[in-house]
Every structure is written in structure tokens, then in C-alpha cells.
Amino acid sequence: MKPLLEVKALTKQYPLPRKGFRKESGAVQAVSGVDLAVMPGETLGIVGESGCGKSTLGLMIARLLEPTAGQVLFEGKDLLKVEGDELRKARRDLQFVFQDPYSSLNPRMKVSEIIAEPMQIHGLYKGVELTKEVSRLLQAVGLSQQQGDRYPHEFSGGQRQRIGIARALSLNPKLIICDEPISALDVSIQAQILNLLKDLQAEYKLTYMFISHGLPSIRFISDRIAVMYLGRIVEIATKQQIFSSVKHPYTEALLQAVPIPDPSLRKKERIILRGELPNPANPPKGCAFHTRCPYATERCQQEQPQLIEVEAGHYAACHYPLDKRKEEGH
Amino acid sequence: MSHLLEVNHLQTHFKTPDGILRAVNGVSFTVDAGETLAIVGESGSGKSVTSMSILGLVSDPGKVVGGEILFEGKNLLRLTKKEYRNMRGKAISVIFQEPMTSLNPIFTVGFQISEVLRTHYKLNRKAAKQRAIEMLDTVGIANAEKVYARYPHQLSGGMRQRVMIAIALVCQPKLLIADEPTTALDVTIQAQILELIQKLAKEQNTGVILITHDLGVVAEMADKVAVMYGGEIVEHASVEQIFHRPSHPYTQGLLASLPKIHEDEQRLYSLPGTVPNLLESSEGCTFAPRCKFASEACLQSKPRLALQGEQHWVSCLKAEEVRG
After folding, report:
1. What confidence score (pLDDT) does residue A23 get?
2. What pLDDT, on the 0 to 100 scale, is given for residue B98?
3. Chain B interface disruption, residue of A180, A187, A195, most B CBs within 10 A
4. Is B190 on the interface with A (CB under 8 A)?
């Protein structure tokens, strides 16, 4: 099977303001050289902490942000090379659900107008058919037809996120990029939205890229998971591989840092990462994680590890992937 | 033995153009020295307004309209503004969620820590600075002397929250209110901050009220838990009871709706509907419209917190059935 989406060496740099006349200004690497592929029908979860580049990555794939370098191949076509009409057509297959359901809906438009607008722009439906389509979409996301006549401010956060999802669905896309779609919602509402996304995926054969900082929700929704740190993917594998045989020390620490809702599992001894995220304008030499890694050696300070296949389908960017370390007695 | 803090039937209401909003509606609980009580609930459940009421920081159009807040036996609601001010930051301290907006951007963090000492203990500049630097060191800030002279914007979120903790604990308060202290932080930093709060509270035998929506954080930190819904406490018990024998349908639903990190699931349990509108005072149970156990009786009369086991309080007419 061919991948639906392929990302090659995708990079985003933000130049820093110059200091003085002569000094080189330098740049922040928000995303550096990310490679990944998404197969049709699967959900790829992207997880990482703030500043790791996960949102930047999502925005670049949808071309809501111009990459500095690299390729975004959607069904084999390089999205970065198309412009104007062609880009608009390509975007039909690739939609976005945003984090904040308050700022991503136009407050002056009725919900039915918000959902109809993409279809009008692309000239898909008109008149009665358009109205029909809007009410079908409202129903698909669990809202009633009458609710289409209201304005966004009349809805709760969870309902607004449903509206955002209906809008993304309206063009019958192949891929939906969800950028932290549940982070702004209450706990009891998060479960509703996660279930809805899963149901819609089955019904419309959707492919998802699900960006989140929350590992439990990533586990629930994803088939494969990519872990990002300081602009790079440090580990990518199937959900089962990540949770049963983690390879990268950062992923391990991330897994252990998540508080578990069970007081009998209070861990007395766990790895708590010391230190903080390094400055992305001046990333550490060698492995970017070596400053916080409990296992770092001299090699890690010098040599940057490449993302290599440690096991079938399981890639990690670490000189000493975790299982091997145990065998070699490090 | 009397409690460090005893809150009885606290009622805090807000006057709005649309009527009276009952943000906190008859809440009671106690906190002892060295004990951590977690107040957990979703947005609008009244958990933050409860903490603001204890701190005497509810301002117009809100007002504490009923109940009492006994701190070491003294009713805080009878204090004058000045007495309250002398108490805050000294005997009762608070850590807020957003470390960027709760620090003053135009003063150095060092100044903001020593200010507390100079106000409450009348320390001179030098002694206050000395103590503030010690405190920065205690909260795990390397290079404390340098950081003393920095401004909040020069620090990361985790560092700022450490500074907030330093400000809150420098006077060794008896009660610490931590209102979503780690919500704005990344998980790896959250783990550091929670560990720090726990360690310092233990050393100083501080009573802690931890306000959060994160049940994972509750399970790691709390001794006792109060679950709030629609301005009321619906269940109150030890942390083990809450997680292993939840007896209110809301607590059960909340726990069941969390995705698990150790299991693969096909579907999540989800509570139907949304949080209640607090402008409407309901005759019956506030949770009844979302409750799968609800009957006619639930819509007619309000349940009260009743004992359902050792120190396990539940406000539900059908608690026994729910518990199964």
C-alpha cells in the first residue's frame, strides 16, 4: 500500500533578529528534517511537550505555514510545489481541526453558514442540496438541524469542537489533521469528542494525524505514534511497540511522568527528568536530549543520533536504545 | 481535636444581569495540618471560587453569602480587610495556575520574594534578600543568587512556578492553597513541581488544598478528595475510596471516561450532556439530567451528603445502588 501522506526532510526555521551589524543572526529550528509517512485509514499520533514542533509540523503539512525546506507528498504530489487553484483543490482532501474551539469559529456566522462555506467555495452543492448536506453533517457530529441556526457563542466548548469537526468533514477529505482537539475541553467532554472522532473515522474511512501532548488520549486514538523532542522525531512506532518496548529514554521518561489515576500505583521510584527544555535557538551539540538524559555518555554529547530502524517498524534516534542497553549491560 | 481549617456550608453567589449564580452552594470540608485535600471538578464546578472564598479574594459582583470558614478555630469571614491581609501570604498562601500573570512583570523575582518577608516579618533589605536566596535554593533553582535579580519574563514556565512556590512558602504558612498549580506546565515539568510541593509541605507540616481537574494528579498527591459538581460537593472520601469505590454516579462517570495509559480500549465511557447552568436553581439533584440512575425522586428532592462507609460521604439518593 502506498502512503497517503509522505513528509521528507521537512524543516522550519525562524530567523532571529540581528544583534549589532556584523554578527550572524542565526535561526531557531522549530522543526528540523522530519521524515514520516501516514498510511490510508490509519491514525498517526504526534506527541511531545510545548515547543517540540508538533503544531508547526501539522501547520506546514496543511500549508498553513510555509516550510523552509523539505517535501510534503500527498498521494505522491508535492504540496509545496502547487499554488493557487491547484493548492485549493489539494486542500479539499486535507482538512484541519484546531485546538481552540472559541477562536477558530467566526462569531458573526451562523453555524450552518460556517459548515456550508467550504462547500460553497469549492462549488460542491447549491440551494436545497447544500441545506441538506449541512443538516447531514450536523447530525453526523451529534448536533440537531435547529442548532445550525444559532451562533457559535451559544454553544459550549465541546459543541463548538463538534462544529469544527463538521466543517472539516464538509469537503469529504481523506486526511484530517487534529491539532490538540481536546485540550481545551473538560474531562467528561473529552471522551465524547474522542469517541466521535473514532466513529467518524470508521464511517468515512478517514486518515488522521492527531497532535497532542496527552499520552493517554494519544494511546486511545492512534495506530502509530511519533514522539517529538526539540524539532525532531526521536521515536516512531506502532502503539503496541511504544507502550510495550519503548526504545528512546525521552519517551520512557514521558510515559513515566504521566500521573496515573490510581492511588495504589503511586510510584516511589520513577525517573523524573531533571532540567528543562534547552533553548531551541541554541540546541545542545550531539543528541538534543543528552542534557536531560539519565543514560547519556560522551558519545551522546558529540554525535547526533539518526532515526534508525531498531526493530521491524520501530524507529528511534538514540545511540543506546533501551532494550539493547539492557543486553549489553550498560 | 480541632481542624486546621473547617469550612461549613459555604455559599458564594454572584449577582449577574440574568439572576443569581450559585457558584458555591453549601460546601463543607476540613483540612488538618500535614494533610492534602484535593478538590476536583470540571470548569464551573465552583472549585476555584471555593479557594478564593477561603482567601477572602471574592470581589464584586461575587459575595460569600452564607456559612463559615474556621481557620484554627477563628471565623475568617469576620476578619477586617487589614486582618485578612496580614493573614494572606503568612498563615495562608496560594499558588495560582498561571505563573506568568501572577508574578509582577516589572519587579525582579527576588524583590517579589523578599517583599513578602519585609511585609510580614519587617525584615530589613539585607536579611530579606538572604532569606529569599535561600528559598530560591530550596525550591530547586540553581544559581539562586543570579536568578534573584531576574525578571519573570526571563524565566521558563517551570522556573516561574518554582518562584511562585518560593513566594508562597517563604513564610512557612500553615495552609497552602494550590489552584491548578501544574495545569500550564508540560508533563515532565509537572512531575518536578508536584514532587517539590509534596516535599516542602511534608517538611513544614503544611495543610494543602489542591485544586485540579486532573484525576491523575489527585491520585498522586491527595490524602482526601472532595468531588465538586455544580457548586456542591457530591462525594468526599479518602483517595483510595474515591478511586477504588466511587459511589456517586458523577465520580464514577468521570473516572470511567479517562483514557487509560496502560490499556488499549475501543471506546471510552462518556457522560452525556454538559455541565449545569448555575443560574437556574434546581429542585432536585444537579446531576440528575446526566445521570443514568436518575428516577423521579432525583428530580424532585435534593440529596444531602450522607455517610456511606467510614468517612465516605456521598450526596446521592441511590448511592447504594450506584456502588453496586
Report:
1. 64
2. 77
3. A187
4. yes
**Which residues on A lie below 8 Å from B257 (Cβ)?**
187-188, 190-191
Grid cell 551589524 in the structure block, residue: A21
Would you state the pLDDT for residue B272?
86
The C-alpha cell at B141 is: 533553582
Q: Give A264's contacts in chain B (Cβ within 8 Å).
A: 240, 243-244
Exposure letters B12-43 (e unless 16+ CB within 10 A, then b): bbbeeeeeebbbbbbbbbbbbeebbbbbbbbe
Record the cell numbers describing residue A272, joined without a space.
523524573
How far, in Å, are B79, B86, B95, B112, B115 from residue B119 at the CA level?
Answer: 19, 9, 18, 11, 6
**Prediction ipTM score:** 0.85
Inform me whether the C-beta atom of residue B100 falls under 8 Å from chain A C-beta atoms: no
Overall average pLDDT of the A236-261 stretch: 93
Residues of B in contact with A259 (CB under 8 A): 190-191, 194, 214, 216-217, 219-220
Q: Which residues of A touch B (CB under 8 A)?
A: 49-50, 156, 158-159, 186-192, 194-195, 198, 213, 215-217, 219-220, 239-240, 243, 253-266, 272-274, 276-277
Cβ-Cβ contacts under 8 Å between A and B: the total is 123
A87 in a structural domain: no
Express the helix, strand and coil content of chain B in percent, nearest 5 each: 40, 25, 40
Characterize A201-212 residue by residue with b for buried, 16 or more Cβ atoms within 10 angstroms of its Cβ, and e for exposed. Answer: beeeebbbbbbb
Residue of B nearest to A264 (CA): B240
Determine, yes or no, domain membership for A205: no
Helix axes B157-169, B187-204, angle to 10 degrees: 10
Q: Sign of dihedral through CA atoms A111, A113, A117, A123? A: positive
Give me the domains of chain B, ranges plus CATH numbers: 5-91+175-186+202-323 (3.40.50.300), 99-170 (no CATH)
Nearest by Cα to B9 from B86, B77, B111, B92: B77
Cβ–Cβ gap A191/B268 under 8 Å = yes
* Residue A114 within any structural domain of the chain: yes
A308 occurs within a structural domain: no
For residue A110, what are the domain limits? 102-172
Distance (Å, whole) CA A115 – CA B300: 40
pLDDT at B262 over 90: no
Q: Encode pLDDT of B215-251 as tens digits.
A: 999 999 999 999 999 999 999 999 999 999 999 999 9
State how many domains chain A has: 1
Mean model confidence pLDDT for chain A: 91
- Give A-chain residues touching B230 at CB under 8 angstroms: none
Q: Does the beta-carbon distance from A259 to B188 stay under 8 Å?
A: no
